[in-house]
Amino acid sequence: MRNQGSSIKLDLASWLCTSLLFISCFALSASLSAQIAMPDHITGFSPANAVHESKLETQFKFSITQDRIRDYHRYFTSKPHPAGTKNDYEVAQYIAAEWKKQGLEAVVIRQYDVLGTRPVSTMLEMVAPKKYTAMLREQPYDVDPDTKNPEIASAWIGFSSSGEVTAPVVYAHSGNPEDYEVLRQHGIDVKGKIVLVRYSNPYSYRGFKALTAQRMGAAALLIYSDPAEDGYTKGKVFPDGPWGPESHIQRGAITYDFMVPGDPLTPGWASIPGAKRIPESAAVSLPHIIALPLSWHDAQPLLENMDGPVAPEDWQGGLPITYRLSGSVTAHLKVEMDNSTQPYYVVEGRIRGSDFPDEWVLLGNHHDAWEYGGVDPSSGTASMMEMTRAFGAMLKQGIRPRRTLIFGSWDGEEVGLTGSTEWGEQFADELRAKLVAYLNVDSSAGGPNFHGGASGSLAPMLVETTHSIQNPSGGTLHDAWLKSTSTERQEEHDSQPVNDANLVNTRIGSGSDHTVFLNFLGRPVITLEFDGPYGVYHSMYDDFFWMNQFGDPGYKYHAAMSQLWGVTALRLAQADVLPLDFEFYGNTVNQFLSELEKNKRFDPAKLQLTSAHEAAMEWASAAAQTNALLNRATATGKLDTKQLTMINQLLMQGEANFILPEGIPGRPWFKHLLYSSRYTYAHLELPAITEAVESGNWPEAQRQTAILTLAINAETALMKQIAVQLQPKANRLPVD
Ligand SMILES: [Zn+2]
To answer: What are the angstrom distances between the C-alpha of 112 and each of 88, 105, 280, 283, 342?
Structure first.
């Protein structure tokens, strides 16, 4: 199934690129990619530097090969490697060794001793009305030898409590608060019982299900994969299709990282030797409930033996049974965990910038996986390794980016965004001063549909960059992105036409490693992913076979990701003026405010957003003027290094103005006024105001609106300060 033709073509180009002189390489590459026009204008670049940048990007893109990505992917999917295991440490050592070979600088493995979570033993049996012992294992298939690996773990949940319970089982649909309300209306109390819920669609983070069950007083939580969500109802199942088979288990953690991510015992500081640790009793992100994930194979006997009230119509799932709320099913559950201090390993490497070494562009992906992590995250790790190889090859030819590139291979993302959080907390002061942007890729390619996310200021440059990337199935990535997004929005009955202004997802929630950089440190972020039909998330079937049969046979989308990720980083690293667009950001914030006014709980008699709207519009218009001045100055190519440094330092403050040191009420670690996530992991804009509105706390909503308005006004002042830098010297105010 691999696309040999295009793979050979890329290899040839890559060989020639490294063998021939730069100009002839460029000419060859240009002839091979007639579809992609070289841009004559790139935002933030002088005309001469734009020409140079285009050549560099072409060279970079053509040195990416699919075969090497496949080889990397085969390595990363060869053994299960969850955080805290020997295998995961070996992966970290491999990445460090490869990066050194590739020529990256200052490669180092950083160890964080964090509160970890590993399974010791798990057991579930139905004891009434009849006996059934749950398999808690995934079925092997001959066609995929990796499914027979004895190292594959049984069903387990990260940060489940240890314990043993025998109790009646209640079905609580998705396990959200409104589901328990339905149970209450039927006279069913879950206190002391085992609650059986399903992974839900739309996605609701399992940690929120755990917190809700804990608050309801349940004794334990079972979360199963219903075929309606990710199994046969959707299409063909593994090994014949991409959806989840009968015995697939969605592992995962239930850490309350929507309160504070990272090591639960070091909230807000790094778990380095000698660090202060709070007692577990004071750790708000630690769950206190026994939890286990189930396949539908193991959940069906529990569901079909219930004889209580029939569950509501929309609670019926994909199994050929009548789903009931409760009745005569009793289960015995025993979970033993090792939730002790364990070492997590973050790998770091860099390429020092030639002109602005203290301006950093950071690229990151996590290396820990529940099992093989075929898509999540090994696809991203493989794309990253090929990208770093291409950067290393350029460096060996003497081509150094103007700004410093830093690469982070995080650990324990799956447990609680742990490695990236600890690293971000350790280097917080330096990152606040030097980090231009963070570019996150978790899963890189599980299908052909592109999704790009960005905090407001980076959205336009991301759209612009996709014009320069070829889509594996033809045309530019930009065109393919417009098309797939239109289709998706039509399916969601969103009638708004898709265009460059709404293509990027600017509603950034949590759930991956960008969180510490955006929400704690106030740095701009980009997130990139290709996806498609995928029903084996966090199961052992998310593996090499799945990727080669269904996800990305031929690794074309992996290669497109290596190119896009690298080219985006290059533009940020090479630009004269950083391509941060605050006119777009101002309009985005204005839109967030309009959306808040449409919130069901919003009461215009209690809260007015007029002055915040006005401030956002004033910011956007000040930024538009500044953009025009910047474009004009950049076009002359006459800004000197000192001026560029001054302007870029000011531009880099643009995100930090939205950081509130004391954090949003109730969640002090989350400090961004514009972005946070709901407990379900769903994105949440203007978190402090929105949560105050939704809880009817109008004085707090007014206070938070005033804080936001001040922050927006600071942005307007910043835009004017940048404009002053661009005026002829005579018009500038004396500095001293
Ligand atoms: Zn992941």
So the answer is: 14, 21, 17, 18, 8
Ligand 1 centroid–CA 19 distance in Å is 37
- Average of pLDDT values for 173-193? 97
For the segment 716-729, what is each residue's pLDDT rounded down to a tens digit? 999 999 999 887 66
- pTM for this one? 0.94
- What's the CA-to-centroid distance between 68 and ligand 1, angstroms? 22
CA of 597 to the centre of ligand 1 (A): 34
- CA 511 / ligand 1 centre spacing (Å): 8
Q: Which of 578, 644, 569, 574 is nearest to 406 (CA)?
A: 569
Using the structure block, give the residue that is written with the tokens 């799956």. Answer: 414
Exposed / middle / buried, residue 406 (Cβ in 10 Å: 0-12, 13-18, 19+)? buried
Taken as a whole, the chain contains a residue count of 736
- Mean of per-residue pLDDT scores for the chain: 93
pLDDT at 12: 37
Looking at residue 97, its pLDDT comes to 98
Judged against a pLDDT cut of 50, whether residue 7 lies above it is answered with no
Q: Which two tokens stand for residue 320?
A: 């050929």
What is the Cα–Cα distance from 552 to 534, expressed in whole angstroms? 11
- How remote is the CA of residue 377 from the centroid of ligand 1, in Å? 5
> Residues whose CB is under 5 A from ligand 1 (ion)?
376-377, 442
Quickly list H helices, 216-262.
227-230
Confidence of residue 300 (pLDDT cuts 50, 70, 90): very high
Give the Å distance between the CA of 442 and the centre of ligand 1.
5
